[in-house]
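Issue: copy button drops trailing tokens. Both records pasted manually instead:
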Amino acid sequence: MDDQRILYLLGEIRENLEIARNVLSQPIEDFLGDIRNRYTLRHVVVEIVEASVALGLYILRKLYGVEKVDGYTSVFKKMMEKGITSLQTSEEMMRMVRLRNLIIHKINTRKLTM
């Protein structure tokens, strides 16, 4: 991964965070009243997680020689173990990964509790 790719991924994260801020700054009634808001928010979660994982993998491989990572959540766990991210940041990103997985795989959480 070269510098241009890193800058692209950082830009993608920033852009999607801004979109999320804009969507979430609406009154709740407006947010819920337009299905496009929910789909937009889902999409930005996926984009943020995937770009963050790509950056994390690059850092782990290039700077720390980590060859194998078992899934998206492991990227953030290993980053915490290496002192790259704090425990809190890693835990929050792992929650974001789980949310991304729910979005991508369209798991109905009500079925999980039955």
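Record 2 (pasted manually too):
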Amino acid sequence: MKKFVVSLTSAKNDTDKATVAFVVANAALGSDQETLVFLSTEGVRLAVEGYADGIHEEGFSALKDLMSAFAESGGKIYACAPCFKKRGLDETKLIAGVSVVGGAKLVEFMAGGAPSISY
């Protein structure tokens, strides 16, 4: 199976980018791509239950719904461990589909060749 990576560095600081990233991730998943969303810097906040509630860009589904659909369809979400820890976030309150990992896991996923897009 082909692989695809969406790298997301935004959360409430740029809800448009965060929303579009998950729209594209769902499209990739729907195109038979093994898809990974890599959350880093501010993006890691989206990994915590409740954080995405209320984020709804005009013309798009609510971010929480996009994220749930992605996870329920088999998408993987990796949250950068150092970014997560730097922000003092709680690993016991992760949304479904999220793993808090080091950069080596992203490299491992991409090593065989995976196109990526960044938001």
